[in-house]
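User: Here's a chain of 604 residues. Predict its fold as C-alpha cells.
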Amino acid sequence: MCGIVGYIGKKNTKEILLSGLKELEYRGYDSAGIAVLSGDDFSSFKAVGKLINLEEKTKNFTTDSFAIGIGHTRWATHGKPTELNAHPHIGESSYVVHNGIIENYAQIKKELENDGIKFLSQTDTEVIIHLFEKKLKTTTNAFEAFKKTIEDLEGAYAILLVTKNEPKTIFFAKNGSPMLIGINEENEKYFASSDSPLIGQCNKVNYFDDGDYGYVTEDTINVYNSAHKLKKLNLLELSTNKLLAQKDGFRFFMEKEIYEQSSVISDTLMGRLSDDEILFDELDKSFFDDINEIKLCACGTSYHSALTASYMFERYSKIRCSVEVASEFRYRKPLMDKDTLFIVISQSGETADTLETLKMAKEAGLKTLVVCNVDNSSMVRLADACILTRAGIEKGVASTKAFATQVVVFWMLNLYIAKQKKTLSSQEISKQISLLREVPSSVKVKDTTHEKIKRLSKRYLYGHGFFFIGRDVFYPLALEGALKLKEISYLHAEGYPSGEMKHGPIALADPELFTIALLPKNMLYEKAKSNIEELSARDSTICAISATEFDKADDHIMISSYDNYMLEFFEMMVVLQLLSLEISVRLGNDVDMPRNLAKSVTVE
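Assistant: Prediction complete.
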C-alpha cells in the first residue's frame, strides 16, 4: 500500500525524500509527491505514474540549509490517480500526507463544506488538513490543533503534517498503518512506513504503536500514547539489509504476504461496512437494475475466487451465476445476453485472456465490472465499474493476499446486492456484516499453527501426488490449495469436490497418495467426513484440516471453532498457504520466483 517518508535536517531534503520513496516502490503506487518547508517558503511537487516523473518535476529544486519535508507514494482508494488526488494535500498554510482510510471522512467533509471550505481532491485525506486548520483557529498552538484533529478521525492512519505556524516541526500520528522514526549521530530525524528508506541514513529506529502521536523538531521527539501520556522512545538498532527490511524480517515475500492478510483485509473492509449495509461508493445505485444473470471470468487463482463467489451469488443474491475460464471462453463463440452482468477478476488488471473476454463483453453490449488490485490498469479503464481489492503490491508470484481480498470483496458485493433485491433479511445482512468484521482476526497466523505445519511438512515431500478435497465453497478452496502447492513445490496436486472421489480418482488411493482434507464443521460435515473415510479405507495418507478431531486422519491441523463456515474458509486458506510454503522451503525451492511462472500474464 502507500508509502510515507519525512525528514528534518540540513541536507538536500528533496533528494532524501525521493530516495526514501524509491525504497518504498515495492509497496505499490500510482502517484507521488513531496512538500518541503524551508523558512517561510513551501515547495510542493506532485506527479502521476512512476517516481521518474516526480524526479523530472523537481530536477531544478534543491535546499542547502535546514528544512523539513514530507513525501508520499499513493495507491488510490478514494478518487482516481490524478495530480489533484496525489499527496501531499494542501490547506491555507499546511500540508499533510496520510496512509490508511478515514472511515468518517464523508461526515467531516460535509461539515467542513458547510463552513465554506472548498475541496480540491476526491480523497479522504484532504479532510485532515482542513480539519486541522479549522482547529488551529480555536486552539492555542498547532500541536493542540493536531491533537484535536486526530481525536475526530475514525479509521486507520499514519499521518505526517507540516505547517507554517510551526516551521521547524513535523506532527505525526499512527493508528493501524505502519510508521517509524529513525535518528542518526548528526541528530537528523527520518520518518518512513518501513525500515528500508532509513537504512544507510539512520542507526536507530523507534516503531510507533497504534494510538501514538506527537511532534518532532530539530532537537526533540515527543511521543504520546492514546491515553495522552508522554512515552519514552524505544530505540532499536537498525538492520543494514534493505531486502530484509522490505520483507519485514520474513524469509520470503510470500511468507510476509500470508502474514499481512489480516491488515489488507482490514483495508479492503474499511469504509465499506456499516451496521446494516455494505457501502460501495464505486457503484451507482442502479448498477444492478435489470440484471438477471452474472457471468464471472478469470484465470488461475482469480478463477478460484470466482468459483467461490458463484456459490454466494446463488445462495445470497439469488442470481443465476456461471464461471468461465477466460482462455476457453474467448474462443468458443459464447452466447451473451444483455441482462447479464459480466465480471472479470484479476490481480494485475492486465491478464491477457481475461482482458480479451472483457472486450468481448463490451462489444456485446453487456454491463461490465472488474474486481482488481491495480487502479488505472487496462481492465479498470475499460470496465463500466471497478471495485479495488486494496491488497497492495504482491511480490510473491504465487498469489495469497490477492485471493483473500477478492473473496472478501465478493462476500461484500453479495450483501450489497441482497440488500437491494431484498433476498436476505436485514437481520441476516447485519449478521453477515458482523462476520465480515471477524475475518481479519481469522486469518492472523498463529505461531503454534505455523510451527506445527513446519514440522508436518517433512512428511509430505515424497509420494506420487496430492488430492486436495472439499465440498461447497471448500471445493474452490481445495483447487486453490492444490494450485499453490503445484506452483511453488513442483509436486503434482489436484483439487476435487469430495464427493467426486468415488467417480474415478479413488483408484489412485494408496499410502503414497497424500490427501489434504478440508473438513468444516459448519458445512456438510458428515458428507465430507464419509468421503474422507472412503479414502482412508483405501490406505491414503490423510491430513485433515478441521476444528473437530477426526480419528481416521494420519495428521490433523486444528483450526479455531467458529459458528460460520466462511470464517472456517479463511483460516483454512491460511493453513493451505503455509503448508505449500513450508513444503517448498523443505525442497529448497525459490518460493517467491517459481520456475516457468510470471506474476502478470500478459500473453496468451
